[in-house]
Amino acid sequence: MSSHAIINTVNVARLMTIGKVESVSEEFFDVQPPQFNNTIRWNLGHLIAVMDSLVFKRISQSSKLPEGFVDLFKGGTKPSDWTTTPPSKDELITLLKQQSNDLNETFANRAEEKLENPFQIRDFKLETVGDVIGFAIVHEMMHTTTISDLLKVINYQNN
Prior knowledge:
Four Helix Bundle (Hemerythrin (Met), subunit A); DinB family protein; two-stranded antiparallel sheet; mainly alpha; DinB-like
């Protein structure tokens, strides 16, 4: 996939994620129906943290996130374990937008670039910058779908 296609896809995915949550009242960001392991806030923070860890830290060896952010949202964490105040809805949306801008600026023409240290996640071998961004896009859309599912259950319970 070309650099243009990868960046276009990540932009579309990110706009879909932002569009999904921008109009949702923050009071619903921390509702955790019993059918779910996490909340809207956790899922948003998690997809931001994974994009940062996979793309920025692994490829450019730098994180763009505030200190302690990843600790709240890395895999295996959950809101009931938090001992610090998580980012607000507005802070998360700002991070989503800023991360999208950073992706565009940093990786716009690098999709075909070979990784110095290719790696594997489950059955997926990631050898290029485009491979990593593509995997991160799939991951993001999985969590955006979970957010959609959370909203359906929350809305059903509140009607």
